[in-house]
Design brief:
Distance between the termini: 36 Å
Number of strands: 10
Largest sheet: 6 strands, mixed
Radius of gyration: 18 Å
Strand order of the largest sheet: 6-7-8-3-9-10
CATH superfamily of the domain at 7-82 and 164-242: P-loop containing nucleotide triphosphate hydrolases
Number of helices: 8
Length: about 240
Amino acid sequence: MPIKPLVEMRDVVKTFGGVHAVDHVNIKLYPGEVVGVLGHNGAGKSTLMKVLSGAYPKDAGDILIDGEIVEINSPRDSQSLGIETIYQTLALSDHLDATANLFLGREETTPWGMLNNGLMENKTKEVINRLNPRFKNLAVPVGSLSGGQRQSVAIGRAIHFDARILIMDEPTAALGMQETAAVAQLVSNLKAEGLGIFLISHDIHDIFDLCDRICVMKAGKIVGEGKISEVTKDDVLSMIIMA
């Protein structure tokens, strides 16, 4: 029996003032897969992912989750379907520790309405340990952590609240070699758990190190796609430049 896609976007359109930012795009994402979405600035990749994340409502087409057509009109709709976005900025509060960031806005309380700090700390240890067993700095402000550790906190927040589909925006931007390797390990761990990941990146090395498939966009359309195992970096650059 064929595996059902986690996400399928069929003939999706998004326009701004008559400009087709996303122009009849079809794309799929399967469990345990990383799909790289790439292209020049203005190609439509970020807009496409913002449609999936609920930041922009689509103008036409269908979005299917687990084979069922769904309506995504807000980030809350998206989150309720198990879709979370890890932004390039990570959207972390630098002065708060990992636990406070993980539960920010969704704090656990006792039956008496008090913050249940012990429960939140234990849950934070559990989810972070799944991602990065070497991470021990749960009690320090996240602003003092390395880039790879900050990614662990941002991803931990997403998967703790039952995300099965992640959108990662430039996950290794401004990271050093060691931190980039840590993010690659995080992505590998998430794939092993069956999550599906859309990865937006300008970095061709990221794409080949982290992704299973690629979709190249230009002027709102997908102009090239393929399995990483079947294309070269020159092939991908040609798709981007020549399309």
